[in-house]
Fold this protein.
Amino acid sequence: MQALFIGQAYIDVTFLADQLPKGDEKSIARDYAVSFGGNAVTAAFCCAKLGGEPELLCSQADDWLARMFLDMAAKYGICVHGRKVRESSLSFIMPKDGKRAIVRCRDNDFLHPFPPLTLTGMKALHVDGHMPDAALHYAKTCRELGILTSLDGGAVRADTDELLGSIDVPVVSERFCQQLDKSEGETLAYLRSKGCRVGAVTLGEHGTVWYANGGPDQHMPSLDVPMEKVIDSNGAGDVFHGAYIASYLKNPDGDWQDHFHFARGASTHAIQHLGNENSLPGFDDVSKARAEFAEKPARALN
């Protein structure tokens, strides 16, 4: 195992429709996709598609949705370490105009402790906070072993402050900043104060603000994709995480600007496709996206 990803597993049903029916109404979707879902899960699949060798610690039930998920993981060569729940989690996603509405059915009532795993040879850990006890345990262990630790900070959770003490690369969302009642710059300062050597705030179409290894705060603009080419933004952030982990695994001594630029190309590819599996990029897809679209104008840091 080169990398371990820890999070909640979903089956995602993504559909394109103009509106949701109400009452006894019915409507027909224009297209749909069924795929794996979940923050760290989608990141793990992206990492695998880009040549990494990830393993996945995630929720796992004993039902037909779980068997579907395991088939998907096997297709990408991902070893799944399941933590027992009663039923699989499911998401219904409706992308529209660059945004997405989501209804989730989630079972995170774990019936057993998280499993102990051998970390020999591992180079990176990525967690999304949905399995907090396992995330904290493995983040602390990996930090002690000198293994890179990464966090998808989609939201501030009860243990986030403690967890950040063992995270090398937190990449957090605008919502994370809002929950802290901090600007982007103040959030980066907070991440610095926790000892995170690389930190970033993703801003969707407005790009990413970040720092690395004691350097100044920087703005990486997004690539300028015409709105008519934006099909499904759901999962693009997860692809971003999986891609920078894959880039790190390929070149651990590389510059984080290069890792993030690679990840930007990967997420640019992702938003042009429906559903998480269709969104996964290969190296050629990343190169094509980076060559096809120019950067948007840089913006002042807040």
User: Anything to note?
Assistant: The CA atoms of residues 39 and 238 lie 5 Å apart. The two ends are 39 Å apart (CA to CA). The chain has ten helices and 13 strands. The first strand starts at residue 3 and ends at 7.
